[in-house]
Amino acid sequence: MARLGDLERSVMDVLWSSEGWLTAREVAARLDHERDLAYTTVLTVLERLERKGFVRRQRAARAHRYAASDSREAVVAEAMMEALGTADDRGSALVRFVGSVSAEEAEILRRALEPLDADPVDAVDDPDLAAAATPDPSFPPPLRTTPGAPDGPGAVSTDSDRTVQIPPDGR
Predict the structure, then answer these.
(1) Theoretical Cys-Cys bridge with 155: which of 26, 44, 68, 151, CB 3.0 to 4.6 Å?
(2) How far apart are CA 12 and CA 68, in angstroms?
(3) Rounded to an integer, what is the distance from CA 31 to the centroid of its chain?
(4) What's the pLDDT score for residue 57?
(5) Within a domain: residue 121?
(6) Which residues lie within the region annotated Disordered (predicted)?
(7) Is 109 among the domain residues?
């Protein structure tokens, strides 16, 4: 996955916060940037984002309109998966990550790891968090706990053939 520069991130923020398709002029008008940007600069950034796969473009009369290809949450999740893929020991990286999250975030992760018959969206009271917990079928399957598996309770399986032991109390 390609990375976003500061200006690209600002443009994506505009697209993610919009209700629909925007022209380059509309994006430029909504940009909250430290300097005024020329329309052609915004157009160049949008074209670069389209090549990277972050933006979709459609023809509208004489102009093009742009929209984000994926939600902000999908892009962040993909970046996290890419970063995790660079670790020599994914299990250790996950444990360190879990150790750095807030208690509320840890609870969200705990609920997301509940057995398959539990719906993670129903387990979250906050509607925004419920939307973020909705599985995206285009991404790899989430980690799942496997109680009673040969490796014991608290084992977490990934789509690779590794199993990681995470104590139930989060330590």
Answers:
(1) 151
(2) 7
(3) 22
(4) 93
(5) no
(6) 119-171
(7) yes
Residue with tokens 């799942």: 144
What integer is the mean pLDDT of 11-18?
A: 94
Q: Which residue has the tokens 């008008």?
A: 29
Do 36 and 87 contact (CB within 8 A), yes or no? no
When comparing pLDDT for 91 and 157, which is higher?
91
d(CA 132, CA 120): 10
Query: 28 and 40 in one domain?
Result: yes
Nearest to 168 by CA among 135, 146, 150: 146
CATH for 12: 1.10.10.10
pLDDT digits (tens, 9 = 90+) for 75-90: 999 988 988 889 999 8
Token pair recorded at residue 7? 């200006």
Domain carrying residue 83: 72-113
For residue 56, the one-letter residue type is R
Residues comprising the chain, all counted: 171
- If you average pLDDT over residues 28-32, what whole number do you get? 87
Give the CA radius of gyration of the chain.
20
